[in-house]
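User: For documentation purposes, I need each entry recorded in a consistent format: the amino acid sequence on its own, followed directly by the corresponding structure tokens. There are two entries in this batch. Please keep commentary to a minimum and don't merge the entries.

Assistant: Recorded as requested. Entry 1:
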Amino acid sequence: MSRPGALFLFGPTAVGKTEALETLIDRPVEVISADSMQVYRGMDIGTAKPDRSLRERLPHHLIDIRNPDEQYDVGAFVCDANRAIEETIARGRLPVVAGGTGFYFRHLLYGLPQAPPSDPAIRERLLRETKSLGAPQMYRRLAEVDPAAAERIHPHDAYRVTRALEVHEQTGRGISDFAAAGPPRTDITVSLCALHRDRDELRQRISSRVRSMFEEGLRDEVERLVGLGYGPGDPGLRAIGYREFFGPAGRLRPAEEDERIAAQIIGSTRRYAKRQMTFFRRLPEVLDTPAAELSGLMELVDRLCDTVRPA
């Protein structure tokens, strides 16, 4: 390859991405996390964040870079990831972009959408309306004018709901109409690798993971975050695995409801994994790799490493 290579490694929640990365410890690679929730500090158990031992042996980027009340969007990710890719290649190491946030991969591969810049007046008015009418009412408005966006955005994600409504008011078009549609980037040679498992096995792994999270202290983690002043309206705590701990009034549900909370997290995670698989199937020229058999992945990594090693 004349251009330096990079590996984009993705797959649904609980498929085994971290286990796959562990096989690469002895290779000259660095990991750029493409997980929209692992960016948040203090959210370790519920995001299945790689433990510090692995991160010490295998460098990771874009983990623990925001507080849970700070917004982190795809534009910030693309900027941060591109910088990490460039710096990793400059060190003569292979960048491995790994995670499960599909639109992060899409925009890192194709570029950012060309949506219009924010209009401060429209944005301020929509924020006032959100405060007076409530997030559910604004979400219903979005579902009427841009159902495609409403399907992808969580009803409690006030930032993205407001942005989608703002774009519609500015242009009369849905925000998804502005998705980047150009050719894949050409500055690096990107190899796409998707990990997969049998559907029933994946469902069981999701259940087991959620049960393990509770055993590891997920409730304690949520209570600690609440004690620090974070709540269900913050970007971090809107994530699956955290938002289920809060009742309709935003209050923390009691420990007596943990079994019900766990069941809700399992259901939400399974639905999310299904959407992830649908999304990843739309990406071009993907190497489909069984998560239980990684020899093909390791061979690919070895070939890609040769493209970034100094001559």
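Entry 2:
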Amino acid sequence: MFDFIKSLFVGMDQVIIDVLTALSPILLLFVLAHFIFLKYKKKRIITIIKGLVITVLGLIIFLQGVQNGFTPVAEEMGKILVGKTSIWVIPIIGFLFGISITLADPAIYVLVQETDKASGGAIKRKMMFITLCLGVGMAMMLTVLRLIFDINILWIIVPGYIVAITLSFFVESDFSSLAFDSGSVVTGTMIASFILPLIIGIASGLGRDPQKDAFGVVGTVALTPILIMLILGVLVRKRNKE
């Protein structure tokens, strides 16, 4: 039991250093801005300091969990899926993982809520949420199929972005911005900490080169929600004209 608890803290010193290094420029800029023109009152500064402390602790706990939990477990899970499961079932499992990870990512909830507010309810939360879930799920399925058939990622990314740029001319400008924002939001913490190691494990299990084949998952995940949101934008614009 003691060894297990001790293992949870392995490498935490480096995680703490990394978090403090990443946040220190932001803190420095805030201090300079405060003394130059912000000049916040003492009560607000205390609130900001509390928020900063919570942020630092949260990042340390999360990254420590990723380092000692998510990443090794996800990679091992990918290898086990290849060894214990039919190769044609893995794309379906990847689709379900994509949906699950989207549901678990807090950044998605923020994006959906803010989009609903900014659009005055024109873009419904439920509609956008389902769209993003399907987009990430399809990206995961496509990535696994790409690994199985050894397809070069350029055959997916290049035509995909050509279609995305073309579709952006047929939707409202706000919808176009929203679509590309969706692509960046879905490739957040959960994709980097769980999905990427999972795909690395699947690639290793299939005998592919993880460095060449697995890392394309982020680009694919970023692309599919963009395409789906733009297609949705075309349909919404057509409906409004009728």
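Summary note for entry 2:
The mean pLDDT is 83.
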